[in-house]
Design brief:
The chain has 316 residues and is α/β, with parallel strands linked by helices. It has helices at 2-18, 42-59, 74-87, 97-106, 120-123, 146-156, 172-187, 203-213, 223-226, 229-239, 261-276, 298-304; strands spanning 31-37, 63-69, 91-95, 112-117, 137-141, 162-168, 191-197, 216-219, 243-245, 255-258, 293-296, 313-314. The protein folds into two domains: 21-142 and 261-285, Response regulator (Rossmann fold, 3-Layer(aba) Sandwich), CATH 3.40.50.2300; 146-258 and 294-314, Rossmann fold (3-Layer(aba) Sandwich).
């Protein structure tokens, strides 16, 4: 009889681990939250900070935050997320698309909140996107109106003839943004050309080619480009080519219709509070957005001799 009971207990424990968590229950009254951030750069850093601040403001020392950075390596996202799943954390915050897709693949039980995600339908390959994932996933989007971003280029340079679209092909949301901006500019009679790179190794050559072929450049909210902003800046300044960016935290840009990534993180943190307290069902929780504002980069404008337009506020 003892052998039968022991075997049954082993099966029960094994099932608990297989289902996506440890069999040990937290008995100290604290929430454990895992943060996986794709890479270190100002926008993602600000979103993570806002998220943590919102959690601490609500829970104080009753929340334990395990923050880890994948250093730009997509495979590291899977390793980090799998570690969170094995620890059976109470919630996972995935900062940037590769972190979100890694989390989605790793667990369908632990609540996942994404942030700095441009388009969840594209990131998660959801057809007929309605604004609700419908599973254990929700979060916030950093998408600013792409038609307005495209029109902004003509607002600054009414006589522009050609726009180079620079992006990383490894980032699905970058492709989504490029397609939308391309459509809008085509409708405005502006010629565009795509200049894509696969990783940071070929950014320099691609950006140089784009500068040689374009009046201005547009770079979306692309994590690889943003984390190499200094390199992009050096090339575009030497070529005297203005750059418009998806978010003003990318220091290579002269202007952007940009959100506050800190505010985005705070919004994500407030969503996490509701999920952890059981006030909402994440399966019905819509993805949330924050307001975009017209910003200019005074350093880049000064370096290129460009006078900022009225209606734009400084990023400094």
């Amino acid at each position: 009889m003892k052998k039968v009971l022991t075997f049954a207990l082993v099966l029960l424990l094994s099932f608990a681990v297989f289902a996506g968590g440890s069999s040990e229950k937290k008995d100290d009254g604290k929430f454990v939250v895992g943060i996986c951030q794709l890479v270190q750069h100002p926008a993602l850093d600000a979103a993570t900070q806002g998220f943590k601040d919102a959690l601490v403001a609500e829970f104080g020392d009753k929340v334990v935050i395990d923050e880890q950075n994948a250093s730009g390596e997509i495979n590291n996202c899977s390793t980090i997320i799998n570690g969170f799943v094995s620890k059976n954390v109470d919630l996972i915050m995935a900062n940037a698309t590769p972190a979100l897709t890694a989390a989605a693949s790793a667990t369908n039980t632990i609540p996942i909140l994404g942030t700095s995600i441009t388009h969840y339908g594209t990131a998660l390959e959801i057809d007929n996107w309605t604004g609700v994932v419908g599973s254990n996933i929700s979060g916030t989007s950093d998408l600013a109106p792409l038609d307005q971003q495209a029109a902004m280029i003509l607002e600054w340079f009414p006589n522009v003839k050609s726009v180079g679209l620079v992006y990383c092909t490894a980032e699905p949301n970058s492709i989504f943004q490029i397609e939308e901006v391309e459509k809008t500019l085509a409708g405005l009679g502006v010629k565009t050309q795509r200049f894509s790179f696969t990783d940071s190794n070929d950014i320099a050559a691609v950006v140089q080619k784009a500068c040689d072929s374009s009046d201005v450049l547009y770079i979306p909210t692309d994590n690889t480009a943003a984390s190499n902003a200094e390199l992009v800046t050096n090339i575009t300044l030497a070529a005297k080519t203005p750059v418009f960016v998806g978010e003003i935290g990318n220091s290579a840009g002269i202007a952007a219709l940009s959100i506050s990534y800190y505010d985005l993180g705070v919004t994500t943190g407030k969503m996490a509070v509701k999920v952890l307290k059981g006030e909402v069902d994440i399966k019905t929780l819509p993805v949330e957005y924050t307001t975009a504002e017209k910003k200019f980069n005074p350093d880049m404008c000064a370096a290129l001799g460009i006078t900022p337009l009225a209606g734009y506020t400084s990023s400094k």
